TrEMBL record:
<dbReference type="InterPro" id="IPR056546">
    <property type="entry name" value="MreB_MamK-like"/>
</dbReference>
<dbReference type="GO" id="GO:0005737">
    <property type="term" value="C:cytoplasm"/>
</dbReference>
<protein>
    <submittedName>
        <fullName>Rod shape-determining protein MreB</fullName>
    </submittedName>
</protein>
<keyword id="KW-0067">ATP-binding</keyword>
<dbReference type="InterPro" id="IPR043129">
    <property type="entry name" value="ATPase_NBD"/>
</dbReference>
<keyword id="KW-0547">Nucleotide-binding</keyword>
<dbReference type="GO" id="GO:0005524">
    <property type="term" value="F:ATP binding"/>
</dbReference>
<dbReference type="Pfam" id="PF06723">
    <property type="entry name" value="MreB_Mbl"/>
</dbReference>
<keyword id="KW-0963">Cytoplasm</keyword>
């Protein structure tokens, strides 16, 4: 598995990339600047709990003059309509909004080929996501309201999620992805003991993404560039 070295895309596109997590709000701005702000009180367990405050935080993070832009925003896997509606409300008036699964964004940010079967484990502050990506699409996923604050149980939860994926309709692709190696992202990838224990539990190589805490916003920025190179692509799948 090959990937990039954690560099942000160069500012070729007029737009924003947003990763709104349970602990941090990260923005890639039209000038190529990355903004990193606390999001405590805005998001809980991957759900927006204060839409107005989240909107103010996003607007405060953008110092450039705002025109109608393209905004690429990450969402947790298996997000419901309520979360998507809340996120669209946060971004209302900024321009066309493109939503991308956070695990896919993290893989793009790590520079990994998303057209071969790939397993991504994202361990965040309050949420853990496991996604199987194939042909550029998240084909199966699991999420749980357990994060770094519950680090003792993260490995067990990921192991159970992986077993469910193996027993699902895409089991053969999961096997191929395990042979390829698992991509670990989010704050959990900064914890060597999580990488080690996951590798032991899964019987597979687990590789932390470069600069894993910003992989998702880097990937969202890369997806933003793609929407400008291919403006006719579907808004829901950059």
């Amino acid at each position: 598995m090959k990937w990039s070295h954690g560099r942000m895309p160069q500012p070729r596109a007029r737009g924003l990339a947003l990763d709104l997590g349970s602990a941090r709000l990260r923005l890639w701005t039209p000038s190529g600047r990355t903004v990193d702000l606390p999001s405590a009180g805005l998001v809980s367990r991957g759900r927006i709990v204060d839409t107005c405050a989240a909107r103010r935080a996003v607007l405060a993070g953008v110092s450039e003059r705002l025109e109608r832009l393209t905004v690429v925003a990450t969402t947790p896997v298996v997000s419901d309509d309520e979360h998507r509606d809340d996120l669209l409300a946060v971004l209302r008036g900024l321009g066309a909004v493109v939503l991308i699964d956070g695990v896919k964004a993290a893989a793009l940010g790590a520079g990994v080929d998303v057209y071969e079967p790939l397993l991504v484990v994202d361990v965040g502050a309050e949420l853990t996501e496991v996604g199987l990506i194939a042909e550029g699409v998240v084909v199966q996923a699991r999420r749980t309201d357990i994060g770094l604050g519950d680090a003792r149980t993260v490995v067990d939860v990921v192991g159970e999620a992986m077993l469910e994926l193996l027993q699902g309709p895409c089991g053969s692709q999961v096997v191929d992805a395990l042979d390829r190696g698992v991509l670990l992202t989010g704050g959990g990838a900064l914890r060597p003991e999580i990488t080690y224990k996951l590798g032991r539990r899964l019987g597979a190589v687990v590789r932390p993404a470069p600069a894993p805490h910003t992989a998702a916003v880097r990937g969202a920025a890369a997806a933003l560039q793609a929407t400008h190179r291919h403006p006719t692509s579907s808004p829901s799948s950059p």
